[in-house]
Amino acid sequence: MNKTKIFYKKMKFNKPVMIVGLPGIGNVGSMVCEHIKNEIGAKKFATLYSPHFPHQAIMLKNGMLRLVNNRFYYAKNAVKHGKEKHDLIILLGDIQAMTPEGQYDINEKIVRFFKHLGGHEIYTIAGYNSAKGKAENQKVFGLTTDKKMIETLKRHGIIFGEAQGTIFGASGLIVAFGKKHMIPSACIMGETEMLDVDADAAKRVLEVLQGVLGISISMENIDHLIKATRKMMRDIEEMVKESEGGAMPAPNPENFTYIR
Amino acid sequence: MNKTKIFYKKMKFNKPVMIVGLPGIGNVGSMVCEHIKNEIGAKKFATLYSPHFPHQAIMLKNGMLRLVNNRFYYAKNAVKHGKEKHDLIILLGDIQAMTPEGQYDINEKIVRFFKHLGGHEIYTIAGYNSAKGKAENQKVFGLTTDKKMIETLKRHGIIFGEAQGTIFGASGLIVAFGKKHMIPSACIMGETEMLDVDADAAKRVLEVLQGVLGISISMENIDHLIKATRKMMRDIEEMVKESEGGAMPAPNPENFTYIR
Amino acid sequence: MNKTKIFYKKMKFNKPVMIVGLPGIGNVGSMVCEHIKNEIGAKKFATLYSPHFPHQAIMLKNGMLRLVNNRFYYAKNAVKHGKEKHDLIILLGDIQAMTPEGQYDINEKIVRFFKHLGGHEIYTIAGYNSAKGKAENQKVFGLTTDKKMIETLKRHGIIFGEAQGTIFGASGLIVAFGKKHMIPSACIMGETEMLDVDADAAKRVLEVLQGVLGISISMENIDHLIKATRKMMRDIEEMVKESEGGAMPAPNPENFTYIR
Amino acid sequence: MNKTKIFYKKMKFNKPVMIVGLPGIGNVGSMVCEHIKNEIGAKKFATLYSPHFPHQAIMLKNGMLRLVNNRFYYAKNAVKHGKEKHDLIILLGDIQAMTPEGQYDINEKIVRFFKHLGGHEIYTIAGYNSAKGKAENQKVFGLTTDKKMIETLKRHGIIFGEAQGTIFGASGLIVAFGKKHMIPSACIMGETEMLDVDADAAKRVLEVLQGVLGISISMENIDHLIKATRKMMRDIEEMVKESEGGAMPAPNPENFTYIR
């Protein structure tokens, strides 16, 4: 297998809006998108495999294994922009590519695939690591490659023009390739001081995102997800110490819905 | 040489079953498959070379050298599934590729090649590193991409659904690509605390595997193999220390049948 | 996106001369070329993107983001060689590729593109790190792949035959590929002890370069640029410390004209 | 530039024998082949460039620069096998590729090129690092992929079957690819404890090689070469310390004939 490939069920979508939540700073994107997927019962319809992902398979609870991958879920008519309804597509994944060549390849393929589905709009969800930020004042920042989106997103409380620096990986590249393929795209970032799991940042983004998507999501179950994510991060840390660099069992990902 | 290539003698096989024992955790896979190869007198019929392997040649005892590689051996009608007989193919090797791109490329090529030979079933053999495991209770775990294999393998004492985490390299990828190419495939893992050489784990797997393959293997000579493997691992460690990172002679691989 | 690509506005150029100022030792090349671009009001007409650049997007002051890239600017008839006028093309960028494969690919593409525009002559601008150099005696060194350029450049005070060692990256590769594509090319290097920002080296090179290009550049605004560059380098350093290796916001590049 | 390329003058060769001396353990191969090139006045006729070499250009004494490369030299009828004469081809270079993919690509291209020239026989020259070896008893070892060469080479004092371990890079790969392309090939290794410059190992190999090639080489000038090589290695070491990992000038390679 020498190429990134997306295997998918052929389906018709209604001007779909995609949200992207891949592993990254504070696990903000993963937690937000996993929670939405769970709450609205989105169904998987496509899987992306790539030789640029680590050569790693995940052991599942039922004795099966599968390659690490990225997965597309959908929910019909879940997004409401005023009176207009859109299908929602959610991109989740175990991992991002580690090399620039892999990142450029995979992220453009994601945008092309979404365009091929009639893609209407993309929001990547990320953490924004602010070394000086204080928790009580943390904000939700936005970045875009389509000027017209700024005013709309500002109305939902997303701040433009204050975030500084660079973004690594899918959250930035997908928004950049969105422009190349003429799909309005923005990145929504929850400010955080934590690199592993920031529950509060995830909640702040979720609140804002409900407005943006015209969607209503219960926050009840999110604490379970946050706890599970935190436990998983601690487990990984401990095992890395114990194994002293050798190969090691990761905590069972099936315990953690967000990387199922 | 820019591509992975398999050079092979043209032969007809009878619904062959492949076992894969490449270097990895505890050297479990290598030792198990090398021992079976020796005991049943399997013959080499194919060699895989790849630019994704380290740029390294092995000095042989007779003054010859050869590139590091992976090798396919066969034994006619060695496998008995009830009354039905199958040819056995054994994959051994000096090394695995170090990059994801190399691993994806080589492991799918291995599966395609086996399919081209009329491949019937694949078992990859590996170690499963359990940080908390106690030697006396160590088990043999299984993972598969074909649900139907679980019941059969359970009957031979292989435990499904308890192993957690991720598998690196060929043991996982070959089983995953097995599914893609519709060849029933499973990974059989001996639990171990040791990263280098675990003789007991190898023996436990061998016992189980005899049942799975309907094969009878003497354990007499395995202790020699285990001793040789241990000595080789110690030698490598010492030399790495002495050479302080410079180039260095490895212990003579010809002393160790499993990487001949 | 699997290939390096240059997007450009179709334009006719008059025997253009290109100067190249990409990030490198002492930021000499970047500062010199950015200052010339600002002073003569050169306009952007082409952008180079590459999967060999880091998978990184830059957050702009206006809430927009863009991929890291290299950019071509032009100024009509800005170069005077005696009575003859030439268009000036200036290459600036956020970054260079980190792998040999990326560097060879991108730098030859740059030379091919310039040749396609009717390219006449190339000067790459760089720092030359002299461990034993004393600031007051620091010089401007030259290197070329076209013997005929040596005498002319010597007349402008550039010293040939004293610089020793190797050059990494674009400054050397572009001059080497210049020879392959038959475009007279030279590298002009300001001697420096500093690896981050050497304002004096940049000024010394600017003075010499005015003679080479037959151009007159005010030095008034350069101190602002130098201060901004220094501040940016300090900011980056601090944040790297604070973030302890995690992802982090870089200082806003929009504050620094040279990586706009 | 995305591919390894050899630029060469078209010439007819008489069943040429190639010796290969690229940078490696103890600089044995480089010193031996450089010395032979100098003593018999071999002329350059081909140059190999590759994007798998470091992205580095070398500053020459005359103010010119050139990319790092590998170079082929020839001397007509320099080799005497009994009564038969052969042209001698010498491969020298600044560097070897650092990745497996690069090494496999370049080394097979070298063998193919030599085959295209009517190649008759290849000897790669290397150091063999023996951690336990004592200087006074150090030997010259041989390895081959053509059994028939062993007896002949033994007669010249080369020892087969004692060297153990693995060889990295061109010295091993070229001999392996020699077999693939049906050119008798062997590696001749001078035992050494030193990783940088071992003059005695080089001399021992030179003596043996004179017999193998039926060639007579004065040892007078070799001490100069050895001193220069040692000085260069020390200079590099010092500068690496001083520059603390930053970019740096290397010692002028033009002072050292073997990387001219």
Question: Any descriptors?
Answer:
globular; homotetramer; Rossmann fold; 28% strand; 260 residues; nine-stranded mixed β-sheet; 6 helices; two-stranded antiparallel ribbon; alpha/beta
Under the CATH scheme, the architecture of chain A is 3-Layer(aba) Sandwich
Largest beta sheet of chain A: what is the strand line-up?
Answer: 1-3-6-7-2-8-12-9-10
Rg for CA atoms of chain A: 18 Å
The CATH class of chain A: Alpha Beta
What is the CATH topology classification name of chain A?
Rossmann fold
Q: Are there runs of chain A of 5+ residues with pLDDT below 50, and where?
A: 242-260
Describe the largest sheet of chain A.
9 strands, mixed
Fraction in helix of chain A: 25-40%
What's the helix count of chain A? 6
SSE sequence of chain A, one letter per element: EEHEEEEEHEEHEEHEHH
Task: Find the CATH superfamily of chain A.
Answer: PAC-like subunit
| Number of E-type strands of chain A | 12
Q: Can you describe what's shown?
A:
4 copies of one chain form a homotetramer. With 260 residues, chain A is of the alpha/beta class. Chain A has one domain: 3-Layer(aba) Sandwich (Rossmann fold). Chain A contains 6 helices and 12 strands. Chain A has helices at 28-40, 100-116, 148-155, 170-180, 199-213, 222-243, and strands at residues 5-8, 17-21, 43-49, 56-59, 65-67, 70-81, 84-93, 121-129, 140-144, 159-160, 165-168, 185-192. The interface between B and D is medium-sized, with 31 and 37 residues. Strand 11 (165-168) of chain C pairs antiparallel with strand 4 (56-59) of chain D, so a sheet runs across the interface.
